[in-house]
């Protein structure tokens, strides 16, 4: 990873700022930095979900979660699949070994799963539940041999290269109906459509959440998935604040813009605080015991030619695996703050763009809308036109940095410490991909802070800008060293993007 001249210039410029005047006030409290007004939030008149009947419907209440809780139990006619999924996990509810533990899942799928006729199904909630459940069956089936191999040898070997028609045909049909690819997704399958409330009358707090499906039934998998849900549960605030910021900038309304940016920062901080609970709720040493099942069929050595979907196509499909990279909260920040357009032009950034096509179609459209409107309105330029706005813009970049920095730490402790496998579940190179984006945020922060007239700021903002800048400089230095070391240790494979082109034929709407 190379330092860009821009970052060096930014650092040089920031050194001219008189720092000894600054009072030490922490930026980590939840106290607001601007004075929010009640009028600040409220949906923009310009955004409407283009697929109004879909379960994933971006809104200020549910944010990026589905607007109805996921259907937890399938109707009676799908009893065979429900039963199969109950017997599937490595560990059964009573502690005994499930089908995946003994390697009996594949046979059970071939013997016990009917080829469901989905043609008459139109209820959106049922379609989404069928999609989730068929993708669980598909991933369990394809990756069962890899998990057994991993447990015996520490390597993954090859997965099953063909998906039988009793999974492939209904899965492809349901996927088409809801505008998705026929493979496990982060939002529509594994994470955001896989929770139920313990007490239906209570809110979506972590302690009131339970999983619907699981590959392992290990408490670490429970924690891993449900921490995502507990974070995204706050995303309505991000949706609201981003629309309010766009409207305010379009109208040249500085107080409303600052209030929206502060609301955005505050909400990201809540999200980041929930993210921090991952360490305690999902043990790092257990992660690899269920991770095999969320791998993809693209850019993975277990599926060198992709997978044939029997009864669907003679050409193999290759799909990225389930990954938090398909969550919409960080891309929303990237797009609103006009960071996406400033990502380096390289194959790693191409992977980022590709990831953004793996998500519910209303999410995709919303993110595209925010990206286009932020650029049309000139959010960054508007923010840089006033010191306080610029400081709040920087504070939001800092929240995106905090997310990506913590996330890189997760990757080091949950994955890099424990396996040499060169690609992550989504098919990105494990050593360089996350740092590519983290470095881009750090550089944008350094350029931004260099452009802020600190003397014009109230004291607490001066301190905030100072703290943020020092942290960004230090983190960029450490990151550069880490990536260089890891690339040498792990070799080119762990650093390079798989050059193969997707052959999935399922590029969706955005
Ligand atoms: C144990 C915890 C976690 C680990 C080990 C982990 C690991 C990873 C890895 C390896 C990637 C690279 C992409 C790929 O799969 O190919 C990734 C991407 C990503 N994950 Fe996670 N993840 C964790 C938790 C989370 C959580 C809780 C979220 C919250 C939504 C999240 C959101 C993301 C995002 C947004 C990206 C894309 C990052 C970017 O744009 O720079 N992850 N994750």
Automatic annotation (TrEMBL):
Family of this protein: Belongs to the indoleamine 2,3-dioxygenase family.
Listed name of the protein: Indoleamine 2,3-dioxygenase 1
Superkingdom of this protein's organism: Eukaryota
Keywords in alphabetical order: Heme, Iron, Metal-binding
SUPFAM superfamilies: Indolic compounds 2,3-dioxygenase-like
Residues the entry annotates as binding heme b: 407
GO molecular function: heme binding; metal ion binding; oxidoreductase activity, acting on single donors with incorporation of molecular oxygen, incorporation of two atoms of oxygen
GO BP, one annotated term: L-tryptophan catabolic process to kynurenine
Keyword match Transmembrane: no
